[in-house]
Structures are given as C-alpha cells and as structure tokens.
Design goal:
The protein is mostly helical. It contains 13 helices and no strands. The longest helix is centred in the C-terminal third of the chain and has 31 residues, at about 215-245. Mean pLDDT is about 75; it is low at about 250 and about 315-324.
Length: about 325
Amino acid sequence: MNSQYRVALALAAVGGASIAWGIIELDSPPAIAMLLAAATLPIAIAFAVWGRIGGTFPTLAAIGGAIIGVPLTLLLGTLLYIGTLLSFAPLSGIVENLFEYLSLDPDLTGTLESEPVLLLIVALVLIAPLTEEFSKGVGGLLGSPTNRREAFLAGVAAGVGFAIVEDILYAAGGVWGGDPWPMVVLVRSLGAVVHPLATGVVMLGWWEWRENRDGWSLLQHFAVGAGIHAVWNGAIAVTIIAGFAFEFDAVGSSLPTLSLAYSAALGAIMSVGLWRLTSTVAESQPTTGIIDLTETRTLVVWIVLAASFMAPIAVLLLALPGST
C-alpha cells in the first residue's frame, strides 16, 4: 500500500468517526465533529485518487477550486438567481397548475408551492450544479494539466478544494446557526465524493475539447458532471425542506435517520462511481461508458440514481403534517 492510500485511510477514519460522533449527538453536534467531518473526507478522497492516478498532485488546481471556484460560483449564482427571481411569477403559476392537475395533498402542495421552497429547489438543483461545475473547472485549469490523467486529477483536486471551503462554511453555519444546519453538514459530509467526481468528469470533457476540439464531448461531460451534482443536491433540497417543516432535534422523529441513510447510500454509489472512473483513467481506457446511455450497465446506473429520488420524496411525504 502506497503512502497516499495510507493517508487516505487515516483521514477517512477520522472523518467517519466525526460523522458518527455528530449522529450520536445530533441534537447538539460538537463543533469539532462537524469541522472534522467537513474537512477530512474530501482530503481523503484526493489522496485516494492521487494514489491511483500517480504523478504529482496538482496543488494549484485545489487552490483554484477554493479561491476561484467559490467566489466565481457566488458571482454567477447571484446573477442567475436574480434572473430567476425576475421570472419567478410565471414559474410559480406553472408549478401550481401542475400540482392541481395531479391532485396532490393540499398540505404538501402548500409547502412545495411556497416561493421560498421553489426558489430553494431551483437554486440547489439547477443553478448550483451549472455554476459550480463551470467555476470549479476554471479553477482546475490552474493545475496546467499536460495529459488526460493530469486533467482528471486536476478536476478532482479542484472539486476537493471547493468542497473543503464550502463544507467548512456549512459547518460554521451549523455551529452558529442551529437547525437545520447540523444535519445539512452531516449529509454533505456523507456526499464528500460529489464535488471531486463531478469536476473530474468535467475536466475529462475539457481535455477532449483541447486535444480534438470535440465540443460535443465537452458538452456531454459537462452535462454528466452537472447531472451528478443535481442528483445529489436533490437529496439536499429535500433534507433542508423537511428540516424547516420539522425540527431535526425532535427525539421522536425518524426523519434524521432516514435522511442520513439515504444520503449515505447515494454517497456510497457515487464513491464506487468515482473509483471506477479513476481506475479507467489510470489505465488509459476510454470513458464513454459514463455518458453512453446505449450501454446497458450505464443506463441501469442512471435509472437507479433517478429512481432513488423516490426515497427522499417518500420521506418528505411522510414527514410533512397532514400528508399521509
């Protein structure tokens, strides 16, 4: 076992213990537990991928993901969010008509039709994946990759740098902001793989464009990276919405356990996906399987991920008052 794997295992153990500590004391998680969970797991992922890819770690790409990716995301996200606000009235009407057509429970639709909730969903599932994957990709270019493997590792590093800053900010919110932020920190820690995986895919597309001027491949890879991000953020959206509907520290509620279990399962699936993709890149094999929906195994994976949305939706239906 090389040194990168040993460091990755040690950090993963610390991060896992921190998550367990936070879950045990979910009503008031210790600040150190949330900070350790937020910081150690992304770094563990970086070391594991680096150990498999080899070469020199692109430190500048990680720094770029943090110092370019985060502020650029805030800038672009703010502009898109303002645009969404300006066009929100017709969007709200479309959603309201859809809910009426489906004859869903009025208590549930009342919650989901509220403008703050709709804006939250739009921000997390649409705006955030698009702006973050673009911004992290820009940050990853600081790694100056000279081959495909370096491009992928630069994307992973940029995703890790971005994730550390973002997760620590969430952890700070958990320390000072109270509910529902402790749960959000724990959920995000379980999905630490999302940022490195998504941006690694995006940077593979960038490399294809650089080498072959293949704009279609770049678009496909970006769509897959943003799609992975959107799938994860959908789970986060449900967790936050349910968090405001119910207090997470209610002893009798099963919502925290269900949310964490779903997040852990989805995070595990994406971790396997990252490792398989890492091995594919390390062995210089083509990566078309991650985006070719005519390939049966890939199609099954995407169907499972899409169907997994039923889990948090079911949790939300059970949790909201009067929805059962």
